[in-house]
Amino acid sequence: MPQPADLIEIEKGVYQHWAMYVGAGYVIHLTTGGRSSLSGNGNKGLVRKEKLGDVVGNHTYHVNNILDHKFRVRPIRLILQEAEKRVNREMFYDVFMANCEHFVTELRYGEPRSRQAVGAMALADPVLTSAAVLAVSTAVVAEAPLLVLVAGGAAAVKGLFWLKRKIENN
User: Fold this and answer.
1) Of 23-27, 79-83, 118-122, where does mean pLDDT reach its minimum?
2) Are residues 45 and 106 in the same domain?
3) Distance between CA atoms of residues 72 and 15, nearest Å
4) Would the pTM of this model clear 0.90, i.e. be above it?
């Protein structure tokens, strides 16, 4: 049975959803409410307090205080107060920089971290490189019309690689 301020990792197939157990069968978590969260364009998430069973549904979960070995756990009373203050608040959501795992690790440790985001960036490397090559190839065939798009795409790819390095170094 989870204890207050425990991090709950919920297996959702290809990704994990994270929540903070706050007691009496409830968790607080950052959710996108079904909206896409894969773009880096500043999607909004909503902090919700719900029954653990409702959030888990037919998936499995386990307590995973993932960074207890690396960071000091903040005082539980403070963690729970801050979590409760954020309920029903809209927050920035980005799969790479501000996802549900970042949200709960920031509450527990004061440090927003996400192994999932680092993993997603690692998987994105070959995909982004292929997309950039395809964009350049398309621009060469079509000539000038796509050059502006390619320049923007190359800048976006470069920005994602910079972000990946920054996350890995933390």
Assistant:
1) 118-122
2) yes
3) 26
4) no
Structural domain span for residue 43: 7-113
Tens-digit pLDDT profile for residues 15-27? 899 999 999 999 9
Residues 102, 123 within the same domain:
no
The b-or-e profile of 116-145 (16+ CB within 10 A means b, else e) is: bbeebbeebeeebeeebeebeeebeeeeee
- Concerning whether 100 is annotated as a catalytic residue, the answer is yes
Domain final residue pick, 113, 137, 159? 113
To the query of whether residue 59 is one of the catalytic residues in this protein, the response is no
73 and 150 together in one domain:
no
- pLDDT of residue 145 exceeding 50, the answer is no
Does the annotation mark 17 as catalytic?
Answer: yes
State the total domains in the chain: 2
Residues 93 and 34 in one domain: yes
